[in-house]
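Most newcomers find our protein records easier to grasp once they have seen one. A learned vocabulary of local backbone shapes supplies the integers on the structure line. Here is such a record, shown just as it appears in the course material:
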Amino acid sequence: MTHVRKALRLSAATAALLACMAGQGGHAAHAADFPDHSIDVVVPMAAGGPTDLVARLVQKSMSKQLGASVVVENKAGAGGMIGVNQIKHATADGYTLGIASSTTHAVAINVYETLSYDPVKDFTPVGNIVVAPGVLIATPKVAPGCKLSAFIDDLKRHPDEVKYGSSGIGTLSQMSGVRFMSATHTEMLHVPYKGLSAVMNDMYAGLIDAAFDNVGSALPHIQSGKICALAVQAPQRLAVLPDVPTYAELGYPELNKPTWYGLVAPAGTPAPVVQKLNAALNHALADPEVVAAFQRLGLTPAPSTPAGFAKQIKEEIAMWKQTTDQMHFQKIAR
């Protein structure tokens, strides 16, 4: 009887080992054939905004490197939650990817009471794309001379009258405003939109006074002369905005941290497929045309390994937890 039990245990162990080897072999075969049709990249924000812009700048080069079309699909709404959940529930085969940002993968988990996804457990990091300095923009009406000091003075004279727009409740563009008000001891009215491009339309119409945007998407509006750039989040002044000081220069170093955008896949995506996608992404980020396009927008390509990007996401979550704890931020009910 003992011999029978031993035989059964050995048989079960052998079967498990063979199954594991078969699974690894299947993944390897899948990676060798990958991709054999187009790849969708879900952008959880509206077209024309910074998240969308980042995806489209690597789209062509990644398509060429992978030998298959990379199709950008915008799924805006609920502060990015609609698009992120689409990524989460997609088949983990590498054919549905998504753009991750501080908003979706670091801020949200720290500002909502409940969240329909886990930014670490529900996704497989593919790689970071860019470091993206933020910029505080405002209309000349509320920022005379396009000076941050004049803007703050106006806020203190007219508390809760100045309106700032964001890409949605719980997004980085809202929380940047919350951090700004905390640091400057001021108050503004928050007006959420589905994307920052819609905010810009209403700034021109005089319905919104200010916004916390990405330099890349805000730059054309700043260069038009109709919108003021008051401060940038960057280690030093940007070549594309040499006359705009950093927050640190203006006495607010705690507001000076730039944001980032990266590429993720659903949890469980085979490692060989992830490595292939990472190689294609990093190749795109080394493409001189892509690098030049990013630099013209004040963005810095930031290639990484999947493991390096995973570490970055976890560190950003910890940073926003510390920030919201220090601010005694009351989490948002959904």
